[in-house]
User: Which sequence fits this backbone?
């Protein structure tokens, strides 16, 4: 049986909502939908690309804590509150994943957890 490893970001919401930033079981790491939210508002303000950079930094931290890296990512999901941010957020995604080339989906959603959040990204990784 594979041992489960829960990775916490330290968010106060994790125990309240009952989730982890990431979970590793065996050679698989699943990173939860991640935003640029903070107690002082969204990191990156009203700039979707800046929020995406912060989000990917947070995802990378979780991957490293679980023993992985961006190179292990096989799938991402990108959720935008405004599809007009597709190119700006896509460019940030491409800076990280341009050579890795995971499968991805980019969709527009009606809202995220707070009004100032413009982007949410999730990722799945398989360790080689």
Assistant:
């Amino acid at each position: 049986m594979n041992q489960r490893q829960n990775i916490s970001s330290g968010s106060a919401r994790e125990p309240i909502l009952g989730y982890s930033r990431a979970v590793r079981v065996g050679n698989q790491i699943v990173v939860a939908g991640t935003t640029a939210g903070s107690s002082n508002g969204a990191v990156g303000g009203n700039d979707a690309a800046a929020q995406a950079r912060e989000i990917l930094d947070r995802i990378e931290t979780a991957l490293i804590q679980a023993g992985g890296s961006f190179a292990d990512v096989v799938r991402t999901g990108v959720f935008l509150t405004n599809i007009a941010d597709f190119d700006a957020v896509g460019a940030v995604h491409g800076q990280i994943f341009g050579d890795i080339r995971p499968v991805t989906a980019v969709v527009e959603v009606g809202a995220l957890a707070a009004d100032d959040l413009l982007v949410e990204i999730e990722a799945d990784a398989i360790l080689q």
Remarks:
- The first helix runs from residue 13 to 17.
- The chain has three helices and six strands.
- The chain has one domain: 4-126.
- The domain at 4-126 is CATH 3.30.1330.40 (60s Ribosomal Protein L30; Chain: A;).
